[in-house]
Write a structure and sequence with these properties.
This protein has 247 residues and is mainly alpha-helical. Helix 6 runs antiparallel to helix 7, helix 9 packs antiparallel against helix 10 and helix 13 packs antiparallel against helix 14.
Length: 247
């Protein structure tokens, strides 16, 4: 049960306002409009606005980051890589761009380059989100069925941020791959204690309880997942799993 690589489009929406642009307010206005289009799924319009921003100010790395992520959303990975590299060239300390660049490399099938970027990002003291880099490395190794390395990176991620559900799920999958199912359950139980309201952890734990015949515990967790996400995909998966429980 794997999760998609974290293409860090969310980060561009949460980054601070860009430094004053050479193109003045007009460039910043194009950038802001591009962000709005990207948030709302109008990717081609976002690309156009980010291009206008970079034309007005070719030295602003934020504008290149936005354009790179919009290209990635459109599946134009070569263009995205080129533009994100330009953002790093303009500001080598813009460390979270390495997370984005690594993700795009992975999407483009350049897995070794992607892992190298995640590793560079994790080791960069300017990286505001090292847990993202560790999670992405864990997911990359999980996809490759390198269970031990995946487990190491998911643990590293949790060492940075225990209040995030995703690495608990990845760590459990890696431990399953290593044949350590009971430890996988223990990690999910620990995760549930840290992220009590997360439906995905309840679902994963319920499924594992079901797999080892702990039907009462499985029902409790699957019902909890359904209650936490009644109309969403996690809740629907929990409802389907409940049907597999013995009567």
């Amino acid at each position: 049960m794997t999760r998609p690589m974290l293409l860090c489009c969310a980060l561009v929406l949460a980054t601070p306002a860009p430094a004053p642009a050479q193109g003045g307010g007009e460039a910043e206005a194009h950038f802001s409009t591009g962000l709005t289009h990207l948030r709302e799924g109008r990717v081609d319009m976002a690309i156009d606005e980010f291009k206008r921003a970079t034309k007005k100010d070719s030295k602003n790395p934020y504008f290149h980051k936005g354009l790179g992520l919009a290209f990635a959303r459109r599946g134009r990975y070569d263009d995205a890589i080129e533009v994100l590299k330009k953002a790093l060239e303009l500001n080598p300390y813009f460390a979270d761009v390495r997370n984005d660049l690594g993700s795009v490399y992975m999407l483009a099938g350049q897995r070794e380059e992607g892992k190298k970027e995640f590793l560079r990002a994790y080791g960069d003291p300017m990286n505001p989100f090292p847990e993202f880099s560790a999670q992405n490395l864990g997911q990359a190794y999980l996809d490759e069925k390198n269970w031990a390395e995946a487990a190491n990176w998911f643990r590293t991620c949790l060492g940075r941020n225990e209040a995030w559900s995703t690495p608990y799920l990845g760590l459990a999958d890696a431990l399953d791959g290593l044949g350590r199912g009971e430890e996988a359950i223990a990690q999910l139980e620990n995760g549930l204690a840290k992220v009590k309201d997360d439906a995905s952890v309840s679902l994963a734990l319920g499924r594992r309880y079901l797999g080892v015949g702990r039907f009462t515990d499985a029902r409790a967790q699957l019902e909890a997942a359904l209650q936490k996400d009644p109309g969403g995909p996690v809740g629907q998966s929990a409802a389907a799993a409940l049907k597999d429980l013995p009567k």
